[in-house]
Write a structure and sequence with these properties.
Layout (H helix, E strand, L loop, with lengths): L14 H7 L7 H16 L2 E9 L26 H13 L4 E5 L9 H14 L2 E5 L5 H9 L4 E3 L7 H7 L8 H5 L1 H7 L4 E5 L7 H18 L4 E5 L18 H14 L4 E4 L5 H7 L6 E3 L15 H6 L13 H10 L3 E3 L28
Parallel strand pairs: 1-2, 1-8, 1-9, 2-3, 3-4, 4-5, 5-6, 6-7, 7-8
Helix pairs in contact: 1-10, 2-10, 3-4
């Protein structure tokens, strides 16, 4: 078994964060919330960046115990062809969406790298920002994705507990813990501008997992000092297969995790998806979260199909159930009631393309600007 990297067990950076997450913390949830709110408004203003996921394919070669797309699930499999992708993009643009996350399962013959690259190129013609949440790739493959218009990737380790990871990932390429752990670094090496990290809360001890997640963010930030980072906090939701999380995370603990991360990582984008309820998302807006998904569909072809009942029958169930099913208009109205401005676009197409993510060894001397 490959030895774990030293940074994964280095506690020097986690003392303050661990103290905030402790049940015995002297800092109340209200105190953390107030500090988190002040940092968020100072660093990001009263804004919320919005994006939407687009599932390209639900084919998968892995056997994740907790996933509705696992290869042993009895669900119709489908992938979007170029004309279908364009229809989906058109339906999303009608909703005002210009920032999308393209998703697939683990690498398969039906949805391989060439398919993903073509899909990115199509999306980049229509959308202002295109990110990908898919299978791990090589440095050269990430460089090719960046050349095609991909600006970011999202890759969750799911859990940093190696023993639990081995049990949950029953077969397939995702079973390789180290290969997945090293994926964000390969993406940044290949010119991807932003990486999104996260753990799937509920799979393992949540405090241990988020401390490891924090170490990972810090490690990448030191190594690829020009890269953009984001952190997501997804909790388990009901899915095909009926997996029940052994470590459920309640709203109180999730709120404490979010506030603690904002305090510990003041410039990092924190993300909350439609897995969470409308009530919880409204409560977190302005308190630490700076990016949210809207109008989410977890089926393949979920946007255009809403107008086409025959297509809906072919796509099967989604990867998981969403909780906040408000329309984009309803969600934006709720944000504005809190004096938070929804942001659908704050960049130009020229932003797309590969980046030079210089490593720590190339960092300027202390006191010199980084850009």
């Amino acid at each position: 078994m490959t030895t774990l990297p030293e940074w994964l067990s280095d506690n020097r950076d986690t003392t303050a964060l661990a103290a905030m997450l402790s049940p015995a913390s002297s800092r109340s949830l209200e105190t953390l919330a107030a500090e988190s709110r002040a940092i968020t408004q100072r660093r990001f203003g009263r804004t919320m960046t919005l994006y939407a996921p687009l599932y390209l394919s639900n084919y998968c070669s892995s056997g994740c115990a907790y996933c509705g797309f696992a290869s042993d699930r009895k669900t119709p499999r489908h992938r979007l062809e170029p004309d279908e992708i364009r229809r989906e993009l058109g339906a999303m643009k009608k909703l005002g969406i210009s920032d999308i996350l393209l998703l697939t399962g683990e690498r398969t013959a039906a949805a391989d790298f060439d398919y993903l690259q073509r899909s990115v190129a199509i999306a980049a013609e229509e959308m202002q920002r295109v990110s990908v949440e898919a299978f791990p790739m090589s440095v050269n493959e990430y460089r090719a994705l960046a050349d095609s218009g991909c600006t970011g990737i999202t890759i969750y380790q799911e859990t940093y507990n190696r023993e639990r990871y081995e049990t949950l990932h029953r077969w397939g390429p995702k079973k390789d813990f180290i290969a997945r752990l090293e994926t964000p670094a390969r993406a940044l090496e290949g010119g991807i501008k932003n990486v999104g990290l996260g753990v799937l809360l509920g799979l393992s001890d949540p405090v241990e997992d988020v401390l490891s997640l924090y170490r990972h963010v810090r490690h990448l930030g030191r190594t690829y000092w020009r890269a953009g980072m984001s952190v997501s906090f997804p909790r388990m939701r009901p899915q095909t297969g009926g997996y029940e999380p052994p470590f459920p995370v309640d709203d109180h603990l999730l709120a404490r995790i979010i506030f603690a991360f904002r305090i510990a990582l003041p410039d990092t984008e924190l993300v909350l998806s439609t897995r969470e309820s409308a009530t919880f998302r409204d409560g977190m807006a302005g308190l630490g979260i700076t990016r949210m998904s809207i109008e989410s569909r977890t089926t393949v072809g979920g946007y255009y199909e809403s107008e086409n009942e025959e297509r809906k029958k072919k796509t099967g169930k989604g990867q998981f159930e969403i909780s906040d099913d408000r329309t984009a208009k309803e969600f934006c109205t709720a944000l504005r009631r809190q004096n938070i401005e929804p942001v659908f676009k704050n960049w130009e197409l020229s932003y797309n393309g590969p980046s030079s993510n210089l490593k720590l060894a190339m960092q300027p001397e202390e006191g010199q600007p980084c850009h």
